[in-house]
Amino acid sequence: MRTRAIVLSSLTKIDYAIVVVGEHPYAETFGDSKNLTILEPGPSTINNVCGSVKCVVVMISGRPVLIQPYLKTIDALVAAWLPGSEGQGVMDILFGDYGFTGKLARTWFKSVDLDECW
């Protein structure tokens, strides 16, 4: 616990944290699952870091996943989907080299009950 306290106290010296969480990489049917929650350590990381400092969460996923439990602690959310080898493009946007453009291909739901496609 002492190490965690030191890390959390050092977070007060920064303006923003970038937290990258999401699903493990997969292709096609290997990612099929009815469980739409973010796996650990994603939720713990979001709660610990975003609860201590302003944060941008970059969500890596091949589908919309449940983020509603974390929205109160997140200052900004980027749906990066599965960028593969193009992670640099995500960084270019986060650090202002290019502006955010585009539109989500589908509505990101608040709960599983609202998503009729699953």
UniProtKB/TrEMBL annotation:
InterPro entries: Cellulose_Degrad_GH3, Glyco_hydro_3_C, Glyco_hydro_3_C_sf. Its EC number is 3.2.1.58. SUPFAM superfamilies: Beta-D-glucan exohydrolase, C-terminal domain. One of its GO terms (biological process) is carbohydrate metabolic process. It holds the Pfam family Glyco_hydro_3_C. One of its GO terms (molecular function) is glucan exo-1,3-beta-glucosidase activity. The keyword Hydrolase applies. The keyword Cell cycle does not apply. It comes from the Eukaryota. It is an enzyme of class 3 (hydrolase). Residues 11-113 form the Glycoside hydrolase family 3 C-terminal domain. Keywords: Glycosidase, Hydrolase. This is Glucan 1,3-beta-glucosidase. It comes from Helianthus annuus (Common sunflower).
